[in-house]
């Protein structure tokens, strides 16, 4: 069996890294904004503001407590929970959980600090709950 050349090995690593970046981008601010824009088209303002309040709370938590949370992990968690609650479909929720796990594994593959990822997940969980309840109280 022939050994792989340097170029082949580099290309193999490049596609893995690119795939990991693509997966992590599902928790990015631009993807989050795209989801919120799509949700706004439903004109269910309670649902829209769940996303808005959760994002605001997430960034306020990060600012007030001055911790460096991985935003992709946190915003991805918000998306996972709120979209799954809206559709109320076990198949979709299972798929969303698998995608979120892939997002987290991608962050680890890209060598994000583990503590930042865990803080992001925690901040995402807290902001999801707070955003959900604030929107429910107001609408």
Summarize this, please?
The protein is mainly alpha-helical. It is built from six helices and no strands.
Question: What does the model show?
Answer:
There is one protein chain. The chain is mostly helical. The protein has helices at 6-24, 29-40, 45-64, 71-87, 90-109, 114-138.
Number of helices: 6
Distance between the termini: 66 Å
Low-confidence stretches: none
How would you characterize the largest beta sheet? none
Brief descriptors of the model:
139 residues; mainly alpha; 6 helices
Task: Please write out the topology.
Layout: H1 6-24, H2 29-40, H3 45-64, H4 71-87, H5 90-109, H6 114-138
